[in-house]
Amino acid sequence: EAGVAQSPRYKIIEKRQSVAFWCNPISGHATLYWYQQILGQGPKLLIQFQNNGVVDDSQLPKDRFSAERLKGVDSTLKIQPAKLEDSAVYLCASSPRTSGFSTDTQYFGPGTRLTVL
Amino acid sequence: KQEVTQIPAALSVPEGENLVLNCSFTDSAIYNLQWFRQDPGKGLTSLLLIQSSQREQTSGRLNASLDKSSGRSTLYIAASQPGDSATYLCAVGGNTPLVFGKGTRLSVIA
Taken in order A85, A4, A104, A75, is the CA torsion positive or negative? Predict the structure, then answer.
């Protein structure tokens, strides 16, 4: 079974530029998550999709971050414009069921390391 | 607001030693607790998931326990190997998104 795929793996941009990350979850998984992991911290959920719909985006900085899940499969996360404090690893995860918040095992991708200069 | 703390932040042990990683959480109203492993430059791998009704889970050389009332979990690794070197994160699941600790960075020296 193929795992969660993410691209790019690394990205370096200057502040005020825009950037987009892509995630392809495990086939058939209903729920998709985007996390931000700042160096030395645990991951923090940015947004959770269940099929096409958003379950939780309470911690997503909506003035600069946006995300969509296309046809309930792939997802993109965009930052526009980027700030220095956005430097982090962005992790995508998926889980099979359409359960509540966090009752299911999540499978993580390798992440995208973003550096904002 | 749920807060998760992991102690120690870093640990270095000789190969073959048994070791315990600790995780504590402030709100006992949880659905489950998960332990993850993170290797440098890689994503997280789920190791064990303990439902709130369970006391422990075992997988190979790993054993995780959960004491909801005291807000604590431990991850026991038996006969540690250099391949166990990684950062171990615990995460608490409830009626909110998963809340992660900062992790314990483990080094097993051959």
Answer: positive
